[in-house]
Amino acid sequence: MNRETVVAEALDLLDEVGLDGVSTRQLAKRLGVEQPSLYWHFRTKKDLLAAMAQAAMAPHANAPLPTPGDDWRAWFLENTRSFRRTLLLRRDGARLHAGSTPTADLDRIRHKMSFLVASGVPERDAQMAMLTASRFTVGSVLEEQADSGPGPGVGQGLPADVPSIDPESAFEAGLSLIVDGLTPRTTA
Fold it and tell me: Is the Cβ–Cβ distance between 93 and 87 less than 8 Å?
């Protein structure tokens, strides 16, 4: 049993029982080991959850980085959509990610920021746009994943004369507002 096996099995457990059901006791049982043997790989459950969050983000973390010739708007939209798709790949993916710190992705984040600045986005605006898009995406996916029961989706609980909006349309509308708000602030 190695660290990668433990994380892969923990992610499978997450998909089956949700974040609240993930425990080191359940994980040890699935792996056929005693619970203390997990501490060889992860000192705490928090360390395990951090490793799970990093592994769950692999599809987004391995997406191509922007290149100097790319249109920043198209890249920003696709980068944020990729983040959303990745969060949706796992049950409670947004909750898992929300408690993590992207220490392994710092070089990628710096590259993305440098790309936006080189594309004419003022540095502070680039920082705030990336942060806003990230938090908006996590919040959107949190709502979408929490609303897994029957019902119309986004807009559930609103008066009858207010139409509901499917989660993807709501996400796209909000994402457009972020990009549209940033566009006039660019120098390019």
Answer: yes
